[in-house]
Amino acid sequence: MLAAGLLSYAGFSALCLAMERHHQEMLGRRPSPSRKVQLRVAGWALLALSLWVSVLSAGWAMGLVRWTAMLMGSAVFLVWLLPYRPRWALVLAAAGLLLGLLAAAARW
Amino acid sequence: MAWLHTWAGLVFGWLLFAIFLTGTLSYFKDEISHWAQPEVPVRAVDARASLAQAQAYLQANAGQSPRWFISLPDAREPALSVMWQDPNKSGRGAFTRHTLDPQTGQRVEARDSRGGDFFYRFHYQLQMGYPWGRWLSSLAAMVMLVTLVTGIITHKKIFKEFFTFRPGKGARSWLDGHNAIGVLVLPFHLMITYSSLVIFMTMLMPASIVSRYDGDTQAFFNEIYPGNQRLAAAGQPAPLVDLSVLYDRALQQWPGGRIGRVAVQLPGDANAQVQFSRHEGDTVSRDAGAAITFAGATGAVLELPRDSATPMVVAGTFYGLHMGLFAGPVLRWLYFFCGLGSTLLIGTGLVMWLGKRQLKHARSGVRPFELRLVEVLNVASMAGLVLAVAGFLWANRLLPATYPERAGIEVDSFFIVWLLSIVHAAVRSGSKAWIEQLGLAAIALAGLPLLSLLTTDHGLPTSIAAGDWVLAGVDLSALGCGLVLAWVVMKIRRRTALAALPIARGARTRASMPSEVH
Fold first, then answer.
1. Which helix (H) or strand (E) holds B363?
2. Which residue of chain B comes nearest to A17, CA vs CA?
3. Do A19 and B337 make contact, defined as CB atoms within 8 angstroms?
4. Interface touch A61/B283, C-beta < 8 Å
5. Is the pLDDT of residue B386 over 80?
6. What residue numbers bound the domain in which A70 lies?
7. What is d(CA A25, CA A27) in angstroms, rounded to the nearest whole number?
8. Nearest CB neighbour to B180, from listed A19, A68, A79
9. Cis peptide before B131 (omega within 30 of 0)
10. Burial class (CB in 10 A: 0-12, 13-18, 19+), B74
11. Mean pLDDT of B420-449
12. In terms of CA atoms, which chain A residue is nearest residue B324?
């Protein structure tokens, strides 16, 4: 459940960065068109990975429920953090990606 | 479409706020019930041993009863509860319920309280007689569904502003917050609203049952829940087999699962039947067929668990998702926060409706009666309700444990505080009413652990030392809610002080009214 949450947070952060306004907010410059596509693909891939991790660890019924809960939780957390601490949101996304992959490997 | 969202949301918003807040609290129904009856001891859960204690107790105290019901203890609800029917009566008043110590089987003289069950029942019955409360709450759910769909349609930048929240910008921030909670928690809003209609579908849309069963709806329910049918007594006495032996055999049906309820019909009669139902928290989908029935005199299997038809599985899944009984601690908190999200969605909508119109009339200087009415109802339905919840919890701790009719007085306290909040809101000006009611609620909730410590033997130090994290958790959560409310009160106070400055008011009026508020 932890892994799914961290990965979906990282995924939403990537999708958020793929939008010009938020990219500007967090990194101070506009993204190139190819960068936008890369971020979008990475974001969706991370969300899919988080679904896969969740279903793998808890089966379809519980896995889907947990994943949806984590999806909503991580998105609300990101949107709340963004205006107050945009840099933290970014650092947390990187940390979330690393820890999420580790947690997924350790089957958390 | 926007007018529908605006007006349906206003008219039903106050009721929906109450339904969603008490529903959110109901995710901790068992925990609140345990907190409300701190006398019930917490033991290591051993359902099998508890069942044997329950059987012995019922044999000794209700040997002549035609029906027994046993609710086995679990991690959330440590009490072993038994209920039986008086042999000479029928109907609701015929049942007696006792709470037993799950280890010793002795009756526990706990304080009489409805605990979390009060919020749970209010959430869909609204303290009205059957079936009116259910119909009204179902109507409210239907309106909620309409406001959700119209909200999605009128929200023009649903993807463009998916990650947008701009705090500190007055009405702009309220709309951002309303939209963000609405969109980001949308799966929960839709699930919880739609599933509430599914739960009552046989009441709301009975046409197919009525036509298929020639108006005899009971026949339909008897087919779905065969265990509820009444048996005829053989008239020959036959001792009931040891239930804990049947317990082991029942559990073989669900490896790794739990038994939630045991129902015994005609104990001591040759025709006795025992039904073991699987714990509802074992699976996401509620499965009405997850039960096994034994002959009470011989122990022979009469009926094995049945596979449900696909429509029943779909309905059971919505039911299970709504109740969230399967949720462990982390998921349960997420459920709670999602529920708060829906509640806040409704609350921010109500505040914005008023804010937008007040701003218009602020310039003209006259304030119409309707706006004042909405303001009073906003304060009483939101701040007043929180205060009423605090009042219920305080009544539980203040009334002596053996006081007669105390469960009823607790409920009365809830409604009296709520009524008083309307009076208070009508007397005080808008922002003062908000600050005073929320401030009092903050103090009351934050002070709850202290009150528990003073009036019971189960204060925080004791419950933590005993490892009773359910009891301690409710105390600590109340403290946490109190602190959050105190922070909200500070925010409102600062804003009110700011708005009193003429320059600031002018600046806000010009800068902050977004166009999408209707």
1. helix B329-364
2. B163
3. no
4. yes
5. yes
6. 2-105
7. 6
8. A79
9. yes
10. middle
11. 96
12. A65
Residue B436 lies in a domain: yes
Report the alpha-carbon distance of residue B29 to residue B217 in Å, rounded. 31
Q: Cα-flanking dihedrals φ and ψ of residue B47, to 5°?
A: -60, -35
Whether residue B429 contacts residue B132, with contact meaning beta carbons closer than 8 Å, is answered with no
CB contact under 8 Å between A76 and B181, yes or no, is yes
Minimal CA separation from B229 to chain A, in Å: 32
Residues of B within 8 A of A66 (CB-CB) are 331
Give the closest-approach CA distance of A66 to chain B in angstroms: 7
Residues of chain A whose C-beta is under 8 A from some C-beta in B?
1, 12, 15-16, 19, 22, 61-62, 65-66, 68-73, 75-76, 78-80, 82-84
In sequence order, the β-bridge partners of residue B68 are B84, B264
Among A72, A78, A84, A85, the strongest candidate for a mutation testing the B interface, having the largest count of B CBs within 10 A, is: A72
pLDDT tens digits, B237-295: 999 999 999 999 999 999 989 999 999 999 999 999 999 999 999 999 998 788 999 99
Backbone angles phi, psi at B517, to 5 degrees: -75, 130
Tell me if B184 and A75 make a contact (CB, 8 A cut-off): yes
Measured CA to CA in angstroms, residue B363 lies from B13, B16, B23, B170, B353 at distances of: 27, 32, 40, 17, 17
In this complex, the residue of A12, A65, A82 whose CB is nearest that of residue B284 is: A65
Over residues A41-50, the pLDDT tens digits come to 999 999 999 9
B273-278 and B291-295 strand pairing? antiparallel
Note down the domain range covering B450: 370-518
Domain count within chain A: 1
In this structure, are residues B291 and B278 in contact, taking their beta carbons and an 8 Å threshold? yes
Residue B307 backbone phi and psi in degrees, to 5: -80, 135
Residue B475 · residue B35 · CB < 8 Å: yes
Do the Cβ atoms of B187 and A72 come within 8 Å?
yes
How many angstroms from the chain centroid is the CA of residue B246? 33
Residue B454, both tokens: 């003073």
Return the HEC string of B305-323. CCCCCHHHHHHHHHHHHHH
Kindly state whether residue B20 falls inside one of the protein's structural domains: no
Q: Give the CA count within 13 Å in the CB-facing half-sphere of B184.
A: 30
Distance from CA of B316 to the nearest CA of A (A): 13
Q: Quote the percentage of chain B above a pLDDT of 90.
A: 74
Q: Per the domain annotation, does B423 fall within a domain?
A: yes
- Complex ipTM value: 0.95
Decide: helix, strand or coil at residue B21: helix
Q: What is the pTM of this model?
A: 0.93
Burial class (CB in 10 A: 0-12, 13-18, 19+), A13: buried
- The number of distinct structural domains making up chain B is 1
* Interface contact B165-A79, CB threshold 8 A: yes
Contact across the interface for B330 and A16, Cβ inside 8 Å: no
Residues of B in contact with A70 (CB under 8 A): 334
Q: Tell me if B341 and A16 make a contact (CB, 8 A cut-off).
A: no
Residue type, B176: D
Q: What are phi and psi of B304, to 5 degrees?
A: -90, 165
- Give the residue on B whose Cα is nearest the Cα of A62: B284
pLDDT over 90 (residue B106)? yes
